[in-house]
Amino acid sequence: MSEKPFAPSAKRLREARQRGEVVRSVELNAAVGILAAAFLFRGPGETLVEELSDMLRSSISAIAVIPLDTTAYFRDVFLESVLRVLPGLAFVVLGMMVVGALSTVGQTGFLWASERLGFDFSRLNVFNGLKRIFSSQGLMEFAKAFIKLLAVGSLVYLYLKNHVEEVMLLGQLGLREGIREWAEMAYALAFRVGGAYLVVAGGDYAYQRWQFMKSLRMTREEMKEELRQSEGDPLIKSRIQQQQRRFARMRMMANVPKADVIITNPTHLAIAVHYDPQSMGAPVVLAKGAYHIAERIVELAKEHAIPVVQNVPLARAIYRSVEIDQEIPADLYLAMAEVLAFVYKLRAGKKPKRQRGGASTQPPMAHGETRVRNG
What we know:
alpha+beta; 13 helices
């Protein structure tokens, strides 16, 4: 089993990118550069070749008539030559720079890694350099260089072998025709070499990506540590959640004195409900709880003389379906209205009818029995 069985997480990849560690193939930049140069010289930069050939021809023709003031003559020739070739040369150079920048950005994206700007003195260590050369990475680089040499060298050899006659005839052509023929052969060879180099570079990029992802793989302990850092320590997180629940409970209990009625199960559940007909569309649950929280809600109700009404079906329905600070749903309006009407009668001083046993109750209701205990 691998010592690092887990693929790198998004956080680990992001940290590596911040350090300047990204997938990048120098071979891909070189291949794109060769193809771009061939295209620029063959297309938009063809005028530059024409200008250079004309300049060479005129220079050779003027050798026999060089004036005595050679300094002024060569200065004028130099300035004229620069002005003739500078626009085309600038176009080709700028085109190459743009293509090189796009190739790099295409591989790495827009990246600024300040850590890479520092000088690493360990790179000057001879022993470290020898270790890199004879390491597995150094052997791989040697293998890639050999493959490039074999692929490009074979391609150049085969092309020149098939065009040896044209090469031999270049000396028999005029200067202009010879330069044009040589340029055509150079273009064709450059496109072939660039295409072959692009294939090699594609393989190199795939290898670089595989090597990069492999170097960032994570152990089980690293995964646990990252999870702990991102989500927090489980113990601390649990304590925070406990504190949050305690504060929420304290806020909830502080709202119990505002309630109009406490609906109970009678001992398992307790729900504090408030309703103001002038400002509210429906009754609102201020607090609810089960077991010891329900007992505490009932105790607070007794302290503040809030009626405690026993209605098992209504208590269960509200506890299941209504959260704190939410309104009672429409399907519970009728049962809730009967409870509130019963409470309002108590407040008005109208005692409910007494049944056998002396308990103060309302008549049986469609949604369950209602019993009251005055705080």
